[in-house]
User: What shape does this take?
Amino acid sequence: MSSDTASNRIVVKIGSSSLTSLHGEVSRRKLEKLVDEIVQLKDAGHEVLVVSSGAVAAGYRKLGCLERPSSLPEKQAAASIGQGLLMEAYSELLLSHGYVASQILITRSDFSNETRYNNVRNTLNVLLERGIIPIVNENDTVTIDRLKFGDNDTLSAKVAGLVEADKLIILSDIDGLYNADPRENPDAKLLERVHKITPSIEEAAGDSGSAVGTGGMRSKIDAVKIAMASGISTFLGKAGTKDILVDAVNQSAKGTYFIPMDDMINLNQKKQWIAFNSGPEGEILITEEARTSIIENEKSLFPTGVYGVNGNFKKGSVVKILDKEGKSIGLGVIKYSSEQLRQFFKQREQHDEKNGQLAVVDNNDLVCNLELLVPVGL
Assistant: This one.
């Protein structure tokens, strides 16, 4: 990971409440402040990618709604108006400082398909390397609920992993993670440094209380877990704080710094995609011996360790791996179709690992201990 004084690749997530006025319009004052700080990071030599919320919040009034819409068609219509307003404002302000912005609208299906996932990564890398500032948002106009990332906190963490960022900065209307809800408990203490997301931290996570955003503290904790599993340090702080971005990079801002330890799980690009984006298409059941082999000894999974198949899938699909109790222990890219595995069960005596039989799941395509990362399905 890069040092704080070196050039960094930084992903900045900006929440809806950080950009909009009380009336739901884009706040020019708030946007100018944040763009000025993004420019300071760029002038210091950093690469910056922005994951920006605010499309629905910026557009719903111009759609004729008096309050944030609840129906999906109205949300999508509002987003189609608001996204253009956001990009126009970002582009105009950044151009006034000599920087070019680009717009990237994505859906969860863009990440669940490995080819499209790699295409997004290649595009973002070109933009960052050329000094462009990508403005990323979920394509709310066409996305349906079952294909949504859920919130831009999760999206920002996945994008940070995608581009191998050095830092993720999550800006919101809260100034960090507390050990209790500060709105209800005046003795709540800000956690300034966190190296591991413990059950007590997850239990303390509550909603942000914002009327215009969708991501509460729970979503931010899940986002942090994704980033930390990818080896990325994360900062959570209040967007309205003076010089918040620059101070966050220098680790002098008020907020919470989530810093992964060297011995923590650090997934490479392939395993990040498997763990956080792929979406399993079936299940395989494995023996206790195979479970020990792949988890404790970090070996590949061979056909002799598989005794059951649920669902139908093709070779190259991602499948969920279950132990004999039915507990999910990981995800992996399967080298056999479900039909091939079922045929194997019928002729098991003809196959064994020593005969050069291909692994069912290669260790390089296998992610275990998902419960230590994030809930499967994020």
